[in-house]
Structures are given as structure tokens and as C-alpha cells.
UniProtKB/TrEMBL annotation:
Signal peptide: none annotated. Belongs to the peptidase S54 family. It holds the Pfam family Rhomboid. GO terms for biological process: proteolysis. It is found in: Membrane. It is a multi-pass membrane protein. InterPro entries: Peptidase_S54_rhomboid_dom (IPR022764), Rhomboid-like_sf (IPR035952), Rhomboid_protease_S54 (IPR050925). One of its GO terms (molecular function) is serine-type endopeptidase activity. This is Rhomboid family intramembrane serine protease. Keywords: Hydrolase, Membrane, Protease, Transmembrane, Transmembrane helix. Its main location: membrane. It comes from Mycobacterium parmense. The keyword NAD does not apply. GO terms for cellular component: membrane.
């Protein structure tokens, strides 16, 4: 399913989310397309962690730069479409600086899991493949979104057929497919397109995003939880920072009445363009 938009408008202009999209396109257009060595220079290489190779930038830098690299037009357009649709509401919840930190941390979480799986279960050649792409971070955005807005409607296309499904189904199914494809790729090398897609970066990013939101909402149970009403707004953690004070949080900007919080009920991260991994 190709998502086109969701049923929940943002509270304000998504400054950071828009900036991330602009930066990703700028890097692709003005760095990658004009520099044939760009992927080798700015991608992340798992073997660099163990000092088995020294390719491109040091790994302490390349885990960030690789998140703004893409293997081609389809890769970047798909990733940015997901970020455009789902990122604005998550930025509403975290605030601008909080969202930026969350986005980068989600990308790091995806890189850590993908690297661990590669080094533990992959070959030497696997560890020397370039990892690049924003979808570990975008998967974290999806993980946060499914917890904040499980009942929102996602409108999209399957082929030329328009479809509207709840977020818990759309994103939940995407995550299940990543688990299945990732397991198949590890058990049967080359299966499920495993040579080109970093499924475990998707899995790590998504799990990180969902976990962070669950922890934050449970830490302040009086916050509005938008799982009961699709149009309700997410908690504004940046407006009500965690503290030990007994003062009540500011009232959410909504005219709807919601029940007390209950329990909480995917992009493409890949590993190559041709032989390279990409995400």
C-alpha cells in the first residue's frame, strides 16, 4: 500500500520534519548525484566497528551521515513520502528539538540492530557492504505514530485502488512483514531480497519508536492518550517536561472527551543499490 495522507491534521507547521525532508533531498541532489564516490564516502560500514575495515568516514560520524544518503530516486521518494505523512504528528508530540533528537536516536537504534545482526550472523562480505538511508529513523517515527494514533485512518493506494485502513493495521502489518522478511533473509541468505534491504534496521527503529512513546506516556499517565479518538491530539511532552512536581499538565487543545489512558495497542530500510545495502 502506498500511503497518501492520514486523517489527523498537524497542530502547527512541522518545521523540523520539513527541514529533514529538504536536507535529504539536498544531499541527494547536490552531493550524491554530483559525486560518484559519495556512497563510499558517507555510508556506514559495519566492519568499521571491529576495525576490520576503514572505509569512508569514521563510524562515529558515518552513522549520522548515512541517514541522509539514498541509493536512488525510488529509495529517497519512498522514504520521504512516509516521513511527510507520518512525521508531522509525531513532531507535534515531541516538539521541535525533541523530535529531532528522537529522529536521530531512532536512526541510531536501527543502525545498532542491523550492525549487530550483520556482525553476529553475516559474512565478512556482508560487513563490508555500505549501509545508507533514512528509514531506520523513519521506522522510529512509524513506531511512535502507531502508539499515538492507532485508530487514525491512513488513505492510500494498492495499485490503482484507493483504500482507507486504520493505522494499527497498516503500520502493524508493515512491521510484521519486516520481521518475516528479516528472519527469512538471515535463515536463507538471499531470500526475500535480503541482499539489498536492511530489515533489522527497520525492526530496530520501529521498536525503539514505539518503546519510547510507551515509556513517556506511562511516566505521565495524566496525559491525553490519542488511542481512544482518532482525532485527539498526542501529548505535548515538550510543553510539560517530566518532573516530580504535582502540578497538573496543561489541558490539551481539543474539544473532545477521551477516556483515561489505556495500553497502547512501516518505509524501506535497505542494505544496497545493486550490491550495496541501503535503507
Amino acid at each position: 500500500m502506498i500511503p497518501l495522507h492520514d486523517s489527523i491534521p498537524g497542530r502547527r507547521f512541522p518545521t523540523v520534519n520539513t527541514a529533514l525532508i529538504v536536507v535529504n533531498f539536498a544531499v541527494f541532489l547536490f552531493y550524491e548525484l554530483t559525486n560518484k564516490d559519495a556512497i563510499g564516502q558517507a555510508s556506514f560500514f559495519p566492519c568499521d566497528i571491529t576495525n576490520a575495515c576503514h572505509l569512508g568516514l569514521p563510524w562515529a560520524i558515518s552513522w549520522i551521515t548515512s541517514m541522509f544518503m539514498h541509493a536512488g530516486w525510488i529509495h529517497i521518494l519512498g522514504n520521504m513520502l512516509f516521513l511527510l505523512i507520518f512525521g508531522n504528528n509525531v513532531e507535534d508530540a515531541f516538539g521541535r528539538l525533541g523530535y529531532l533528537a528522537f529522529y536521530l536516536a531512532g536512526g541510531l537504534a536501527g543502525t545498532i540492530l542491523q550492525t549487530a545482526v550483520t556482525l553476529l550472523f553475516g559474512t565478512t562480505a556482508d560487513a563490508r557492504e555500505a549501509n545508507l538511508g533514512a528509514s531506520g529513523a523513519i521506522a522510529a517515527v512509524l513506531g511512535a505514530y502507531i502508539v499515538l494514533y492507532p485508530k487514525s485512518r491512513i488513505f492510500g493506494l494498492i495499485g490503482w485502488i484507493p483504500l482507507s485502513v486504520p493505522a494499527w493495521f497498516c503500520l502493524g502489518l508493515w512491521f510484521v512483514l519486516q520481521l518475516f522478511a528479516g528472519g527469512s533473509a538471515r535463515i536463507h541468505p538471499g531470500a526475500a531480497g535480503g541482499g539489498g534491504v536492511a530489515f533489522f534496521a527497520h525492526i530496530g527503529g520501529f521498536a525503539f519508536g514505539a518503546f519510547v512513546v510507551l515509556i513517556l506516556t506511562r511516566a505521565r499517565p495524566s496525559y491525553l492518550r490519542p488511542d481512544d479518538q482518532a482525532q485527539a491530539r498526542p501529548p505535548r511532552w515538550h510543553d510539560n517536561p517530566l518532573s516530580t512536581k504535582d502540578s497538573a499538565p496543561a489541558a490539551p487543545r481539543t474539544s473532545m472527551t477521551v477516556a483515561p489512558p489505556r495500553g497502547a495497542d512501516g518505509p524501506q530500510e535497505s542494505t544496497n543499490d545493486g550490491p550495496r545495502p541501503w535503507r
